[in-house]
Amino acid sequence: AQSVTQLDSHVSVSEGTPVLLRCNYSSSYSPSLFWYVQHPNKGLQLLLKYTSAATLVKGINGFEAEFKKSETSFHLTKPSAHMSDAAEYFCVVSDNAGNMLTFGGGTRLMVKP
Amino acid sequence: EAGVAQSPRYKIIEKRQSVAFWCNPISGHATLYWYQQILGQGPKLLIQFQNNGVVDDSQLPKDRFSAERLKGVDSTLKIQPAKLEDSAVYLCASSLMYRVNTGELFFGEGSRLTVL
Lengths: 113, 116
Description:
The structure holds two protein chains of two kinds. By secondary structure, chain A is mainly β. Chain A is built from no helices and twelve strands. Chain A has strands spanning 3-6, 10-14, 19-21, 23-26, 33-38, 45-50, 56-58, 64-68, 73-78, 87-94, 101-103, 107-112. The N and C termini of chain A lie far apart (41 Å). The model of chain A has no long low-confidence stretch (mean pLDDT 92). By secondary structure, chain B is an all-beta fold. Chain B is 0% helix and 47% strand. Chain B has no helices and eleven strands. In chain B, strands 2, 4, 5, 6, 9, 10 and 11 form a seven-stranded mixed sheet that branches. A four-stranded antiparallel sheet of chain B has the order 1-3-8-7, with no helix packed on it. The model of chain B has no long low-confidence stretch (mean pLDDT 92). Chains A and B meet through strand 6 and strand 10 of A and strand 5 and strand 10 of B.
């Protein structure tokens, strides 16, 4: 069975500084990995996904993530945080058949002015 | 393009009462999902439909939860009788593709249930 662990439940950064949200996964096969974002009282939105193509994946709003098989990691980064980035972020893995998503526990990103 | 619609947005009930949530997916999306998101946790899949057939309901507590998707369009999730631990946000999502890793899930804003 697949699983994901988000290493930080809360991350606080200052506006204009880099963002790093950490995610480790466990899978017995080559997984598909995703990052979703959830703004308050809004639906979850796909930020980016990795499906065995390029290991560096670029997403919306300047976010990117790098798939590192040797480290079983899929960390999310952004060079410069914006106030609008404050939200809950979920790292997600799909099962081998591509049928089911397993979500991590989430990381709440806070951005200070 | 209209997104995934859910209602009601908020519901407060007492334990042992029943509740129903409704979801209307994006037009043309054959696959529909119900997730349960307990406060402080990631969403957990309850049931997945492909058109009006159930693909996966292995994590649905069938003694109290039921869901249907008549005519392969909108869907209803029912809880009867509710327990305190059912307090959560119930998320509906839909996708065009059957396999989640080839497409994108579009989520509604959720229905927040509080059981007293």
